[in-house]
């Protein structure tokens, strides 16, 4: 057989990952906060994009609105010829002539104006009232654009600020204050110090003994327990502050792990106390704060903003709608493009404007497609989990991405991206969309399955309702679930229990029988 070369033409179809397609995929899986940030950056970068909210439209009208403050056209602030002076003029003139003119115009003595009543300030300085070409309305009834209420809000106290104030009273040497400042700034939000003192001493160029001495001073600051390097040390510092750190309590703190294991008999033997004393010691430990720095609060937690709202409809079904507040609204300014494209001086400028138009059109289309996709997926999830919304978690069905994808005619990867970082507000609370997807656990009867999340909820209910004298073992839970039609293995029950941070039957028996 002879080998030869020849030229052939074939037609085939393949998916090409263009930059626009990759950006659309990235856009689909963004959370609402990430999406807003991305759109804001595009608005700054693309001159053809505009916001469609009311503020943007009002800003483009070109009209000047009339405010409560008067803006004079004359440099000296006087009224134009032929016009009557307004309220700002007579106030300025009276302030210059004195309080008698103000009293005569008000038809009363200034002493009759009480401090709590809106009136003329006591003794204003006309020189301070003038700002540029305008005069501010100084009466309490008038508002100024420069008046900022946030300037009167007190600064929230922080842990670092409180400790620095105490440091200036406790330490006088500048070197010691430098060491203390470094230690203060190394605290976590709970007030714990996770630093190697030897490395810190080497970094600051001082001896370890001096760092240890400064640390001992800092550990006496309020709140008690700060600058601890472990939970045991934190509790110890608080007990010292309360003058309750005796030898028995010291032995208790050194073996604090036995309390977590509920090995109270071993604790009594180590501490050399009876049942009554041990109960009092445990009560004192529970009265302490394991996170002393948290009393000052921490960084603000961003609340979850749902992307989808689910409400019961009048016909007994569920109404699903998007949260319009989380959807950025942009507009492509075709008029501006048509105007500036004529003024382009070279091909580079024309290419830039054309690319900007394509990018703007793509972004507007992608945002619309993203919203439609989220609504379509959410609607199908609500249809599949109607029992959960109506009756509760016990009726949560097993669900996977493939089921939703086949129902709406999309790929599983698309459904996965849609459900990432998206939240749904229902009458039963706010849930991440991925919460509604759970694996299936087979039932005792053929064809019957149960959601793993519903089974976990059932296990927690059983453990919460168990009798302290009859603690349920994992085997007992398995038998009970099988009687309820759920076929589950013992190791699965143990895995679910540990995931919910529920102790074993031995630990629960010790905890409930200790009457603590």
From TrEMBL:
Q: Which InterPro entries match?
A: RNA_pol_sigma_54 (IPR000394), RNA_pol_sigma_54_core-bd (IPR007046), RNA_pol_sigma_54_DNA-bd (IPR007634), RpoN_core-bd_sf (IPR038709)
Keywords in UniProt for this one?
A: DNA-binding, DNA-directed RNA polymerase, Nucleotidyltransferase, Sigma factor, Transcription, Transcription regulation, Transferase
Q: Transcription regulation: present as a keyword of the record?
A: yes
Sequence ranges of Polar residues compositional bias: 58-69
Q: Name one GO biological process term.
A: DNA-templated transcription initiation
Q: Which residues form the RNA polymerase sigma factor 54 core-binding domain?
A: 149-336
Q: Name one GO molecular function term.
A: DNA binding
Domain RNA polymerase sigma factor 54 DNA-binding: from-to ranges: 351-510
Name the GO cellular-component terms. Answer: DNA-directed RNA polymerase complex
Q: Which domain of life is it from?
A: Eukaryota
Map out region (Disordered) in residue numbers: 48-92, 109-128
Q: To which protein family does this belong?
A: Belongs to the sigma-54 factor family.
Q: What is this protein called?
A: RNA polymerase sigma-54 factor
Q: Which organism is it from?
A: Effrenium voratum
